[in-house]
Amino acid sequence: MNIDCKKEIDIAKKAALKAGKYLRNNKIKLNQVLSSTNRDLKLKADIEAERIIKNIIKRDSSIDILAEESGMSSNASFKSLVGNGETLAPLLEKHKKLLEGVKLLTGEVTDEDRERIALQLGIPEAIKAETNALEVLVGSINQALLFDKARLDTLKAQEQAVSKQSRMNASATAAQITLSNQQGTITLNRLQKEATLQEQTLGLSKGQVLTQEELNKKTSEEQQKYATLLEKRVEIAKTSAAQIGTEEELAKIGLQANALATAQLATVKQKQAFLATELKTTQILSNVSKGLGGKLSPAQQLEAQKKLAQNKIKNFEDELALLNARLAFEITIADARLVAEGIDKTIREDIIADLEKQQAIQADILGLKIKGAKEEAKTVGAGNFTGLLSTGTFADQNTAADTAITELGTTSGKDTQGKLEIMNEFMSPMRDALSELGPEGDLINAAQEGILTLASAFDVVGSSTASAADKMAAVGAAVTAISAIMQASSKAQVAEIDNQIKAEQARDGKSKESVSKIAAMEKKKESIQRKAFEQKKKMDIASAIISTALGITRSLELGGLIGPILAAMTAAMGVAQIGIIKKQTFQGGAGDTPSAPNTALSIGQRSSNVDVAQNATGGELNYLRGGSTSGTNLGGAGGAMGRKGYANGGEGIVVGERGPEIITPTEPVDITPNFALGGGTTNVNFSINAVDATGVEDLLVNQRGNIIRMIREAANENGEDFLTQVDPMAYGSNS
Fold first, then answer.
1. Is the pTM of this model over 0.85?
2. Which pLDDT score, from 0 to 100, does residue 635 have?
3. Alpha carbon of 281 to those of 256, 277, 285, 287: distances in Å?
């Protein structure tokens, strides 16, 4: 066959130019997709341009057009399609065998033989019918490519619009499923027609699968066609699986109806809560109008609690019913999806069985909630019963014992510190009872707690895992515990003396002997209090030292710049704290004693007495005031001037610049002024073993060293210095 290449090239160029012009004039159609497969993407403009090119080539060219999908000429492709038709293929096979028989008989086959046998078999009519069927099939495929895209876009838009309203909306869900299925049906019809055409081209029956051996016998072009066919079948399977069947559709609709019912149940709960509040408000206002106050009565509260418990049970039961329905719908949908995807029956049954187990677990959980609500309903109002045996020491002891038994079974309860704490908590009710018995009970409590605290401290100090800071803190706790025991002991002793004093005051309290006895007991009580004060002071200093050391240690652990700074600040504050504690003085003392002040004063050992309250001369009084006598000038300060003395309660001290005054150092200090010394039975006696004033002066001069020493000792006892630069022995003191 002679081909005019230049002519054919011009024809092709003409077709290409006309198609290009069409594409330029129809840009809006360039992105409109008509069909999409795994192997090709067809645009509307491409299809039209292809049609223009084919028409020009068919009209002007003598060369056959190659089929786009088959890779063979159009005539060969068409013959293959017609010959593989369901009606014609068996006839052609029979025609072939009959011709072979003719050849065996006559030795050759003529055209007349072929035409005669074809007419006998009705092959011309079959070819015509098959050709018409192919035209219908190809026409429907082309129509689908042209119009399905628009139809699918419309249905998709409708589906999206409806899906926005499908939540908890059974009608919208049903409409959405219908629109989705319509899209799948349109796509599925086109794909099935395309697959049928491809199968007929290859001479395969519907759904026929080639073995590897059969495939190896095919040409490369036929193998490529078969690969395209397999891809088409996969796409058909996916589209078919996406279709929602009647059972699945009903399950999906039921699932949304279930969601709506669940939301309605939540609304019911809110309404119940509102009605309960409304009822409470009504009852309160009714009580106010009846003069019963603005609170619910116990009966009204109990009734509200009972109704609340009943509603709680019903709500849980409704939730369980909705849960079972929802899970049943979900299992139905899951099973339908698995069937659509072609999952093996055994695997599908195993999956569904596991889903049913999950459903049972969720239902069991909600069932337990229902049982719990029913049990709670049984205890409604039980809180109004306090129990006749629920309070008191015995009940507290039982509670403490139960708690201790439970705590001993824990991991912490097996540790030494845990056991000590359990013991302390176990004794708590008994300590509370003892504290009501006064100081003696407090002493026992302090001793008991102190023993356990010391045991805890010793355990920490002896531990190999405890840090130095932990051990230091334990020592501090031990010191505090000991101090508490000592203070409790002192309070108990003081309380006992107070009881004895009260008893004595009730018995007598007025006679000289009774007053003296009370004074002695007051003095003893003060001694105990003073000793307790000093003990506490020392313990406080020890605690402050430990606390300071602990603070410094932990501060240094911070390291860097802040550690040393905090350590220094801690040390400074600790020193200040210790200094303040050291300056503390005893502020207590004996209580009020009904005894009269002691105004007797003895100085020296001489026997002459001068009663300055009754018969003092002017010279004697002048001397005592610090002046000179009218007779012989005694010189020096008066006998009662400048004397600063301290003594225990009951011992009188002479003071005063303008005459003798007696101070009795009790708490508070009582001072007897000069004008109150005269009259009655109050006497101030100076027992001076001298016959004249000169003897007194000699006595004072000779005792200067002892006087300085005694004053210094008294000052030192009160934390003050007195003439530290003077040596008393230089003035006659023996020490």
1. no
2. 45
3. 38, 6, 6, 10
